[in-house]
Amino acid sequence: MKRPISKSFLIKCLKAILLCMGIGGACIYFGLFPYVGLELRSQYPEFKNAFYPWLLFLWCSGVPCYAVLVLLWQFVKSVEKRKPFTLENAERFRKIGVCALFDSIFFLAGNLLLLVLNWNHPSVLLVSLLICLGGAAVWVVATLLSLLCKKAAVLQADNDLTI
After folding, report:
1. How far is 34 from 63, CA to CA, in rounded Å?
2. pLDDT tens digits for 120-136?
3. Which residues make Cβ contacts (< 8 Å) with residue 152, sequence separation at least 6?
4. I need a surface site. Which of 21, 46, 84, 144 has the fewest CB within 10 A?
């Protein structure tokens, strides 16, 4: 009979995944985006003035993503301490949802603004809509997890008071 996967192993995996996401995101935001932007600027000189606004916009869109990583790290730490169902974790999930929703709205508004300034292409705007849809899905899931975690915390508190 197979042994179940241990909680400590899963927590180590989650921490490794979060670290990899943080490092990978930094490589994308500070390596790939500037490189691609410089390449596009050299191929399309009419967009040379759009390089820094686009780069700043993309960097700003990454801030909520890193806030989510910090909140998820705090959640994993609380699970490690055997306290997964707390009001603090419910609040963390609520904040994750807010970050995802804010970033989606910011990303869409920024793409629309750059399109109006003629520094964007309609196809990029269409792709950004898909990214925003993903952000909206994260908002819904995180908000639902927040509600479930809050209910579980209340039930656990009631149960702890029962003899």
Report:
1. 17
2. 999 999 999 999 999 99
3. 85
4. 46
